[in-house]
Design goal:
By secondary structure, the chain is mainly alpha-helical. It folds into two domains: about 400 residues, Alpha/alpha barrel (Glycosyltransferase), CATH 1.50.10.20; about 270 residues, Glycosyltransferase (Alpha/alpha barrel), CATH 1.50.10.20. It has 26 helices and five strands. Strands 1-5-4 form a three-stranded antiparallel β-sheet, with no helix packed on it. Helix 4 crosses helix 6, helix 9 packs antiparallel against helix 11 and helix 14 runs antiparallel to helix 15. The longest helix has 17 residues.
Length: about 700
Amino acid sequence: MHDGTTVSEATRPTLVTDMLRIQHEIHAPAVISDPLARTVQHSADALLEMQAGEGFWRFDLEADTTIPAEYLFLQYFLGSVDVTRQAKLADYILSRQLQDGSWPLYEGGPGNISASVKSYFALKLAGKDPASPEMKLARQWVLTHGGAENANVFTRITLAVYGQIPWRTVPAMMAEVIWLPKWFLLFNLHKVSYWSRCVIVPLLIIFATRPVHALTTNQGITELFVSNPGALKHLDRFNQGSLLKNLFILIDRMLKIAESFVPAGLRDMSVRKAEKWMREHMRGEGGIGAIFPAMANAVMALKILGHDATDPDMRRGIKAIEDLVIENENETFVQPCVSPIWDTCLSISALTEAGVSTNADPIQSATDWLFEKQVFVRGDWSENAPDLDEGGWAFQFENDLYPDVDDSSMVIMALLRADAQANPDKRGRIAQGVNWVLGMQNPDGGWGAFDIDNHYEYLNNIPFADHGALVDPSTADLTGRCIEMLAMLGYDRSFPPIARGLEFLRREQEPSGSWYGRWGVNYIYGTWAVLVGLGALGEDPSQPYIRKAINWLKSIQNRDGGWGESCDSYDDPDLQGRYESTASQTAWALLGLMAVGEVDSECVTRGINFLMRTYEGKGGWKETPYTGTGFPKVFYLKYHGYSHYFPLWALGVYQRLKAGKPTRQQEVCAGGPIELGPMPVVEKIRLRP
């Protein structure tokens, strides 16, 4: 379990090293008088101080209150409730309640019915008096918004497990789908994303056994239902506006009838096959998929099958969940996962762009740590790329079966900024990572995150997928990032993967000139990722589509000089780029603009002034809104590191360019094509149409 601190005093690296002192001597005369140099130096020193002794950075990752609520539910299911921790988590949940009694999915967002039902339920289990003002207000809000029966599918599953609604109200997910081959067109596990796969397979066991964990009458939440919960039947209703959705609802009802005819022997075989898959995917220390929902489902499934903490997989699964708990002096909460590789590669890029020497001990130890985390395991991605060699990076400390394109490309760019390619052995390792990223390109020219050709978006219409995030298609943000990585290696627009990527980006551009951000909030994030890719490639910024993006970013700048965007823009695109300024989103906008030649523009000057004005010392920049995205419209993230490394990155780039010096990225590009040495040529292995 993490104790909430990023690094202990005992393992913290010495900051005032001779090397760093020499590095800062260049700016010594300006440290006191120049606000820009002072902010860059102080924020870089603060970030260096946050590095762990092993060489990595890890900042807290926060979601909404459903995660700590689900953690409490799991403890009741396992019979291992810690009343002290339960009280702390209840305090955390209460602290996030809105004035109207509801709970949102993100800071500043509106009340959400599913988050509110789970939060209320967790508080009641924790002993909160239902007659208290907070609970009465929450109850009133839920009832006026359709009652608990209006919650999403995953909330319904929770309610069914704890006996609050009948299992028949949950969409069908028969254990026998584990047998469906890849050629089965309508649905199979290879058609859905990694996160869906890791969540679904343990659920197949849970659905097959339909457990009901008995609660006392006082612990139940029948008061949150508009109708009698015991009489509920079909909560997924036919929609006159969607023929495809209606078809899937009809199939769901047919499956519920057919399930009663499944032979017991076949059902047992299906459960055992699902258990085998699940165990194979939870052998690592990070838990199945290294994400909380999948980890919790897997532990529940093993418990249902009669296993306890003496089972090695169960023991590792429980420990992985406990490692997500953050307990510090201020509050206790549960993370949905951890982000050390992401935090580390972004910190390296920010620090090197801010002038920290690539020979500095913190940079060297961080790059060594990243190489230690490179994945050489054939994960689920290999199903669609059997000839592709391993070599990517994951997001968490350990998630070997699921490296991702986003982390891999960002890690490679951080390693290039750190001059890791100067070492022949490390250059070969970089080549393996590059080859893996190239092999993950989709036929449409874009890149997704974890899988290839995972674009079956019609599956988002099945009742089980009411969260609308069952698949992993190509996105503009990842495509822009991969183009940026390839440009740093010396490839130009004639390189076929880049040419296809550029075509994809042209198709995906929004009418406003922006690009949608799948993995960050939202259009500012997507536009940043694309523009820095185009800038690294040396694309002419006078091209109409690039000018359109530049003009869009300029048009949405706030009066205070910053940029901001709320998660609301996923629900209403008219809100793109409209919200209070945040440090991370301001940094993204600035990095995007500076990448395409706008360093001397007035809006960039105003944005830099905003960052300097709002810097708060070692604490970095205050950032309350959520600017990270898990699943658009349903799950958002607050990366506590974003307000440390992204503003520093932007300020460092600006300082270099205004001084007439190249950025660290430009220095890498100016070095000419990087000879990576022998590696499989993906273009010959997997030719794309």
